[in-house]
Sequence to fold (470 residues):
Amino acid sequence: MKSNIFKLIIAFFIFVGSASAQKQPKYIFFMIGDGMGLAQVHSAELYQASLDNKNTFYPTVFSQFPYATFATSHSLSHGVTDSGAGGTALAVGHKTKNGVIAMDSAGVKPYKSIAYLAKEKGMKVGITTSVSIDHATPASFYATQPDRDMYYEIGQDIIKSNFDFFAGSGFLKPNTNAKKEEVAPLFPQLEKAGYKLVYGLDEYNKAKSSAQKLILMNKKGTDPVSLKYAIDQKPGDLNLAEITSAAIESLSKGDQGFFLMVEGGKIDWACHANDGATSIQEVLDFNRSVEKAYEFYKKHPEETLIIVTADHETGGMAVGNGSSTLRLKNLQNQKVSQEQLTVLINEFRSKNENASWDQLKNFLGEHLGLWKSIKISEDDEEDLQEAYHKSFVEHKNETSKSMYAVNDKIAALAVKAVNKASSMSFASSNHSAAYIPVFAIGVGAEQFHKKMDNTDIPKTVSTIAGWQLP
Fold:
């Protein structure tokens, strides 16, 4: 009798242990800060503390997750990846060459993303971003194309995906294919495939109860390229946290569970422009979207997995540029992005064609705090004076080009001066090979505990979820 009881006890613990080992998340958040290296995260945390004059940091919600590590991000073709190869690695677990979306380097063999694996297991799937829905990182989860610039063809791949929810600013080429030919418009094709296209939160709220498949875009008449930078947003502007909340609400209907990819796409854009204040606000904006996921996790802690990572680092950002004293608090004086500052300078120039140097100084002081709240170096002032002379005296308007913007030379130099005065610097205006951060919480999160490669991240998610990644 005692022997039988002992056997039953052993069997019970074996069963419980086995059940625990096989536990799989019902809800998976895969959140990507595009261009977000460790320096980008830490600069945002240091900045928040500096506002209270504290020599410490105020952590983001995701940097407090119980499991954290870092990963390499090189592509198959280059030591420094682009977002096509970087997004592909995170989506499908395979390296490819720069510029390719979820295919081998020859652009012949398609790879299946973990989003498709989730859909095959009966889960709902959402793909969201703060830039266009057909951009490289979100595209890597639903499309397979040999070139990231094939925006129309990438958009068409939404139809074959049959995913449940898409959101972002819009689409870049809804009427023109990769050969630059005018073709059948994309939007009617999406509607024929069962997608309800809504523009802005008001339209979303009207459609959410009846629509089975939804594509949420920015309001009509706004820029389809991206949402506004967080630093430039006004009340009523669509933001990433609102998109994330809408996705959670939509995907939570029913009992299937869901996989949701969220991209904070403009951290990368700000760092391409070497715009320190704007990059910090983009990280904080991304953090607010992670907070939405974390709020959901707290309601379903035994069923949810959240992964926060990046596709690569952008700009080679450094916090601290010589002095032992950090002056990140200076960045609070920058009220607009470099891109918006360019718009304002153009308006100022049109109204003040022959403005004096003092007038321009007052203008820059108003928007950036230079001279008024921030001491500017002699070298930076000389550079700005030279740019002023060419622009307002010689009337030769010079520009500064970054990956996603062509900004006024004065705007670029002025933001550079703010960076320097705020203890920030950049090594380049492009991507770097710096490690990417990885943070995890929830079911299976303990498996993110050692140095990884970016391809290991979707493989680990697949293992935790019980999927077979090809």
